[in-house]
Amino acid sequence: MSKAKLLVVDDEPDMLDFVERVMRRRFDVTRCTSAEEAMTALDGGDYEVLITDQKMPRVSGLEMLDRIAGNYPRLVRILLSGFTDMPDIQRALERRIVHGYVLKPVDSEKLIGAVNQAYRVRDGEPFEPLSD
User: Fold this and answer.
1) DSSP 4
2) Cα–Cα distance, 75 to 96 (Å, whole number)
3) Residues of 31-64 as b/e, b for ≥16 C-beta within 10 angstroms?
4) DSSP labels for 37-101?
5) Sequence-ordered list of residues with C-beta below 8 angstroms from that of 116, at least 6 positions apart, any chain
């Protein structure tokens, strides 16, 4: 049985390495270093999950998710972010642009929990912040 496809987007190679290490048992991981690269990859691939950093050059994670949300309604969308973006993230959750988020520093258990929860949110459950 083939694994579901995950697209991870971050301009930091260390974070790409980390997410790939944590998720590769469950997913076939594709890495992108920019929102533009990710949007091109989405056009050509059947991805189930997208994990993106918020703070990237040119196009932020939330901007990219806002652009693609309507085109990929079944795509599970998760944002990695610092604390400074909370009002923006809250609005994105309310508008269903993002299904979950993980605040930095990211650890493997939080990331896996966020992915599992994001599937449920995509399928209609209300978002509840994960407790530490």
Assistant:
1) E
2) 11
3) bbbbbeebbebbeeeebbbbbbbbbbeebbbbeb
4) HHHHHHHHS--SEEEEES--SSS-HHHHHHHHTTT-TT-EEEEEE-GGGHHHHHHHHHTTS-SEE
5) none
Superfamily of domain covering 4-122: Response regulator (3.40.50.2300)
Rounded CA separation 19/23 (Å): 6
pTM here is 0.94
Q: Which two tokens stand for residue 118?
A: 């994001």
C-alpha 79/C-alpha 29 separation (Å) is 16
Phi and psi at 77, nearest 5°, equal: -115, 125
The count of other CB atoms within 10 Å of the CB of residue 70 is 8
Tens digit of each residue's pLDDT (9 = 90 or more) over 42-61: 998 899 999 999 999 999 99
Residues of the chain with pLDDT under 50: none
User: What is the C-alpha separation between 61 and 10, in angstroms, rounded?
Assistant: 9
